[in-house]
Amino acid sequence: MFAVRIQREPFDAVAESAALAAGRTDVGAIVTFTGLCRADAGPDGAGLAALTLEHYPGMAEEEIERHVEEARRRWPLTGAIVVHRHGRLEPGDPIVFVATASSHRAAAFAAAEFLMDWLKTSAPFWKKEEPLDVARSGGWVEAKASDDTAADRWRE
């Protein structure tokens, strides 16, 4: 099973993981990552009331699918699921879910890290912060050099 979804609704990480293993006897490892909206984010770490994620419908799914295919070329995966939310999210809300399955753990771990590093640096999503303190101005989130550095290890 290989799936990519972008949705406004919350997802069930346990059900998504179970779907990768359902009826399979060739899966030896499933690695999952769930990203959550943090309250300590926001302008200058002053606190976040909400984060609004926007995307380019159609293009975002295609780009994520392209990177799932790249992960399949690099590692012997038996499945992968990427679910990314959009819309207004509050601290504690799940934002992204990545799960990779393989016969062996090393491939599942590497593929999950590869996909998350790509999602953090290059996926066509835009994030706007809404600070807790309404007197502070929120704004669009800038790319982080540390995320780019993490993604550099996957460049061929």
Summarize the topology:
Elements: E1 2-7, H1 13-21, E2 29-36, E3 48-55, H2 59-74, E4 77-85, E5 87-89, E6 94-102, H3 105-121, E7 125-131, E8 139-140, H4 145-152
Parallel strand pairs: 1-4
Antiparallel strand pairs: 2-6, 3-5, 3-7, 4-6, 7-8
Write a structural description.
The mean pLDDT is 89. With 156 residues, the chain is of the alpha+beta class. The chain has helices at 13-21, 59-74, 105-121, 145-152, and strands spanning 2-7, 29-36, 48-55, 77-85, 87-89, 94-102, 125-131, 139-140. Helix 2 packs antiparallel against helix 3 and helix 3 runs antiparallel to helix 4.
How is this structure best summarized?
The chain has 156 residues and is α+β, with helices and mostly antiparallel strands. The chain has helices at residues 13-21, 59-74, 105-121, 145-152, and strands at residues 2-7, 29-36, 48-55, 77-85, 87-89, 94-102, 125-131, 139-140.
Key attributes of the depicted protein:
alpha+beta, four-stranded mixed β-sheet, 4 helices
